[in-house]
Design a protein that fits this description.
8-stranded parallel β-barrel, 551 residues, 44% helix, alpha/beta
Length: 551
């Protein structure tokens, strides 16, 4: 059986499966007759604190201080006297230490979630994780930590602290059935380069029935194959060997220019959704960030993120990228990115509904907060601002009018900011592509979003698995719109980039280089691979018409 998921980190793995369901973790059901429950808690807390210290040291050595600091936060929470008092008050003759810790961590998480301080809201999930760690120690649950053979781990989701305790000698792949690509654990999986996929299609449900079975994790196409045939095992064995050889060979492209054989330059930037991903951008020699998905700042929050919180977040990204370009896309909420506190109406066809710039025009106060945070952060790096889902000149005019007001406010308040920040738009609707000659005269750059441009051009929902045969982002009509957009941008004297994953497709790269696209932004793991492919292209030998004319 084959299942589809989102790619967290690429690679091929063929191993036996271990199913881990944290909802069914073993735990004591009755109070201990031999030991006081509060003493059991104190002992487990000491062990948890030691675990967090070890994880801090390990993560600091293998990753960076930023990732390691997560475990310092966990340690501080475990040591907190308020947490201890809550556990003590929950313990009684009938309640185990496990239940008391679970209840206490939930009470604290609820308290954090109700606060106005954005930083404290973000700590709600962390205190739950601290509680889970202590409960695991109390229950003697070390199933994952003590892996004894090469394994593909299947779980609904996983905490970063558990992941970092698992012996990497035996953990070969990870499947987060209900996880998402921008959670703590996904970011850590990318950082340690662990082949991982997340958010499997609804046809897969976690079950012990697959425990111990052989499986193939295809981190290139985002597939999980349970009980593969011998032919599939042999085929993926060859693919894995080729992949390992290719990864080794790519190291020689670090520090090399991103140019074709005949000298055409095409900058290679990275798509990211978190400041924690910057390490991978720099490790893979990304020339900048071409798409920072700011909506994940909103998706990770329980309420509208404050200006101060956003300012500090964007500032961190800009400072870490130093003198390299960072293009931050304003929030693209709506369609498949639902945020409860936005209180959006249910829509029959949300992809064509109230999203992105349309929300900004209807609720300018939310957009204004983000713009203020971006302009304040601009003094700390090389920032560009990008607006998604544009379909008209009126929308562009609205953006620049609001930017003018934000600049006036900051000037009056004496808040420093860079006045000349490049402001561009995404070309991801046929409407924007078709009037790109007009739009190019109003903005500083274009960035083509091929995922949405493809689905809108083909009238084909890209998230519907039944339409996989219909959804073709290399359709001649789409390539014509891309070519038209690039030409109109250059006529107006502005650059044009592409931030959809189509840009890294080796079969379409010659076309993009030949029409003189200025920049490709893709997952950082593909930067060196794309640079290698680019170096083998001679644009003078590329027949552009063969791409844009139906076969």
């Amino acid at each position: 059986m084959q299942y589809k998921g989102d790619i967290v980190f690429e690679g091929y793995v063929t191993e036996s499966v271990l199913v881990y369901d944290e909802q069914k973790r073993p735990r004591r059901l009755s109070v201990s007759k031999d030991k006081n429950e509060y003493d059991r808690f104190l002992s487990a807390r000491i062990s948890a604190i030691k675990t967090f210290d070890q994880l801090y040291a390990t993560t600091l050595k293998t990753m960076s201080e930023k990732e390691a600091n997560l475990f310092q936060t966990y340690k501080i929470m475990a040591e907190d006297s308020d947490f201890e008092d809550l556990v003590r008050s929950n313990i009684n003759d009938k309640q185990t230490a496990e239940d008391a810790v679970t209840n206490a961590s939930k009470q604290l998480a609820d308290t954090f979630s109700a606060l106005n301080d954005e930083y404290m809201k973000q700590r709600a999930a962390d205190v739950i994780e601290v509680g889970n760690t202590i409960v695991d120690i109390l229950s003697g649950n070390n199933q994952l930590v003590n892996l004894t053979k090469p394994t593909i781990l299947l779980c609904n989701d996983l905490s970063a602290s558990i992941l970092m305790q698992i012996n990497r000698k035996y953990l070969k792949g990870l499947v987060l059935v209900k996880g998402n690509i921008n959670s703590h654990v996904s970011i850590f999986a990318r950082t340690i380069e662990l082949p991982t996929i997340a958010n499997l299609d609804n046809s897969f449900a976690l079950s012990n029935a697959v425990n111990g079975k052989r499986a193939i994790l295809d981190g290139i196409k985002g597939r999980l194959i349970i009980d593969p045939t011998e032919e599939e095992v042999k085929e993926y064995g060859k693919l894995a060997k080729q992949y390992d050889e290719e990864v080794t060979s790519l190291k020689k492209f670090v520090g090399k220019p991103s140019v074709t054989k005949d000298g055409v330059k095409l900058n290679l930037y990275a798509n990211i959704a978190s400041a924690l991903e910057i390490e991978n951008v720099l490790k893979n020699d990304g020339e900048g960030v071409g798409l920072f998905r700011s909506e994940f700042v909103y998706l990770a929050s329980k309420t509208f993120p404050t200006e101060e919180f956003q300012f500090n977040y964007y500032r961190e990204v800009l400072e870490e990228m130093k003198d390299k370009q960072v293009v931050i896309r304003t929030f693209d909420i709506g369609a498949d990115k639902k945020v409860e506190y936005f209180d959006l109406r249910s829509e029959i066809n949300p992809a064509l509904g109230f999203r992105s710039i349309r929300i900004c025009r209807k609720r300018p106060e939310v957009f204004r907060t983000q713009l203020r945070a971006l302009y304040r952060a601009s003094v700390f790096g090389k920032l560009s601002i990008m607006i998604p889902m544009i379909v008209s000149v009126e929308e562009v005019d609205f953006v620049f009018d609001l930017i003018k007001k934000v600049k006036a406010e900051l000037t009056k308040e004496g808040v420093p900011f860079k006045d000349k920040i490049p402001v561009g738009i995404m070309i991801e609707t046929p409407a924007a592509a078709l009037i790109s000659d007009v739009l190019a005269k109003k903005v500083d750059f274009f960035s083509i979003g091929t995922n949405d441009l493809s689905q809108y051009t083909l009238a084909c929902d890209r998230l519907n698995p039944d339409l996989n045969m219909t959804f073709d982002n290399k359709h001649p009509a789409i390539l014509r719109l891309i070519q038209m957009t690039v030409e109109n941008a250059h006529k107006a004297g502005i650059p044009c980039s592409m931030c959809g994953e189509l840009g890294r497709d080796p079969s379409i790269l010659p076309f993009l280089a030949a029409i003189h696209l200025d920049e490709i932004s893709c997952s950082s793991a593909y930067i060196l691979k794309t640079r290698k492919a680019l170096a083998q292209i001679d644009t003078k030998k590329v027949d552009v018409n063969s791409y844009t004319n139906p076969k």
